[in-house]
């Protein structure tokens, strides 16, 4: 599944950029620290928008294409922000065969975003993940740290309503 770039405008602060530049300065002489810098950048911003990738590329003297390649390859990196309520649908084998895709389809319809996207108001984000270890409850989704199991697409509106109030 290819990661999508965020449609939400970047809104980094000068304080965040100052922190990032300090991380880069401490690591710029060691190219093997690129992933560590990217991880710290994601901790600072919550995700790795193209503007942050540009700062890293410039500061670490690494091509932007390499930064983007690493960010889009590794599951630990996100190219779009997480919402106040991050919804994660398990797409492991057990959940998938029990109908996880129908949950994603219902969520897409209910909140108006696709996988790896965030609503414009920052309330919800949606992602597909690998097995979360609750196979007996499949299909499963989480909203932040709350787990919902044995779901059908008909359960989705009620779950979303709980977080919309």
Please explain how this structure is put together:
- The chain is an alpha+beta fold and 165 residues long.
- It has helices at residues 14-27, 34-45, 50-60, 64-73, 93-97, 100-111, 156-164; strands at 85-90, 117-118, 124-129, 141-143, 146-148.
- Strands 2-3-1-4-5 form a five-stranded mixed sheet, covered by helices on one side.
- The chain starts with 13 loop residues before the first helix and ends with a helix.
List the helices and strands and how they pair.
Blueprint lengths: L13 H14 L6 H12 L4 H11 L3 H10 L11 E6 L2 H5 L2 H12 L5 E2 L5 E6 L11 E3 L2 E3 L7 H9 L1
Parallel strand pairs: 1-3
Antiparallel strand pairs: 1-4, 2-3, 4-5
Helix pairs in contact: 1-2, 1-3, 2-3, 3-4
Q: Any key phrases for this structure?
A:
alpha+beta; 5-stranded mixed sheet; 5 strands; 165 residues
Overall geometric form: elongated
- Biggest sheet record: 5 strands, mixed
Poorly predicted regions: none
* Strand order in the sheet with the most strands: 2-3-1-4-5
If helices are DSSP runs of H or I spanning 4 or more residues, what is the number of helices?
7
Proportion of residues in extended strands: 5-15%
The H-and-E topology, N to C, reads as HHHHEHHEEEEH
**Mean pLDDT score, rounded?**
93
User: What is the assembly state of the chains in this entry?
Assistant: single chain
Q: What is Rg?
A: 18 Å
Between the first and last Cα atoms, what is the distance in angstroms?
32 Å
- Topology, number of strands: 5
* Secondary structural class: alpha+beta
Q: What is the helix fraction of residues, given as a range?
A: 40-55%
